[in-house]
Design goal:
Helices cover 70% and strands 8% of the residues. With 318 residues, it is of the alpha+beta class.
Length: 318
């Protein structure tokens, strides 16, 4: 019984023809599989997780402070306080009523409210005690005014001019002036949060740079063999980038979860204060979208740092 002879062994020309027949993508995959995977094992994923968690916490704090400052400015930016200073209680009430009528007729005034004496006494009781409601201490009549526009110096001067004709002794103050130091402090904390985010980003880039240099040094001999076999710089870099993508994704995910959990716990603590000023610092939907972009930014930073590091290392070696 005749047998079919085996095919002749593939020579160099046959191998070249076969390699040329393969698509470019398959040739790159085959060339990449020749090298053993270079893993960024060690503490790098956990370092990235810690840094991403810090950025999430700092970013959330900065966004909350921005919302808090915006709500505070919106609440008192148009508010004006008018004090009618008169020691005689009977005359004080008459002049306060005259001031309310003058303010009501003034253009640009949206709402006028005279604060009751009982409410004033309750506000002063923590400092004056029971004497605040006894009538022995002359307390100025207080009128809250809400303007249609911002309480600018020109608007304050216009109100003072209108009241002097009706009330001899009156004092007009923009409520935003009293909160200006608070607004400056909130703005400083926002800049501090931005600075912390920048420092953490530099630390993350430095950690990835060190890891990429170490992984490249460990696989230096293999990289040289791969280059002699015809692998391009893109193929060699792709071998490292796959490991960076995997481990950076793990670290960014863990860090985001830890940071969001910390932000939620802090939010519950501040919500328990039941303060109107603190409640204005809640995070909005757009803020959460910005927080969700933090792990993506960390992933892109890790990939970009690794690519730049490998390209420079390959240029120096090859």
């Amino acid at each position: 019984m005749s047998r079919v002879p085996p095919p002749p062994p593939a020579g160099p020309e046959t191998e070249a023809e076969t390699a040329g027949a393969l698509p470019a993508r398959q040739r790159r995959r085959a060339a990449t599989r020749i090298l053993p995977p270079s893993r960024f094992t060690g503490p790098i994923p956990w370092v990235l997780a810690i840094l991403v968690a810090l950025v999430v916490i700092a970013g959330s704090g900065g966004l909350a402070l921005r919302n808090l400052a915006a709500n505070a400015n919106a609440g008192v930016g148009r508010a004006v306080s008018v004090q009618v200073i008169e020691p005689n209680p009977d005359l004080r009430g008459v002049r306060a009523a005259a001031a309310v009528r003058a303010l009501t007729r003034l253009d640009g005034v949206q709402a006028v409210r005279q604060v009751p004496e009982a409410e004033l006494a309750a506000m002063l009781e923590p400092w004056l005690g029971d004497i605040a409601a006894s009538g022995d201490v002359p307390i100025p009549a207080l009128i809250d005014v809400e303007l249609a526009g911002p309480a600018s110096p020109a608007a304050i001067a216009r109100i003072e001019t209108a009241l002097k004709a009706a009330v001899p002794r009156v004092r007009v103050d923009a409520q935003g002036v009293w909160l200006r130091p608070v607004a400056n402090a909130l703005r400083a904390l926002q800049y501090l949060a931005l600075g912390l985010i920048a420092l953490v980003a530099l630390a993350a880039a430095a950690a990835v740079w060190l890891a990429a240099r170490g992984a490249f040094s460990a696989a230096r001999d293999t990289v040289e063999i791969m280059h002699l076999l015809g692998a391009s710089k893109q193929q060699i870099a792709g071998m490292f980038l796959r490991d960076v993508l995997r481990e950076a994704t793990l670290g960014a995910t863990l860090g985001t979860l830890a940071g969001v959990a910390a932000v939620w716990a802090l939010g519950q603590q501040f919500a328990a204060l039941d303060s109107g000023l603190v409640s204005g610092g809640g995070l909005r939907v757009t803020d959460w979208l910005a927080i969700a972009a933090i792990p993506l930014a960390a992933l892109l930073l890790a990939l970009a740092t690794t690519r730049i590091t490998l390209e420079r290392a390959l240029d120096d070696m090859l």
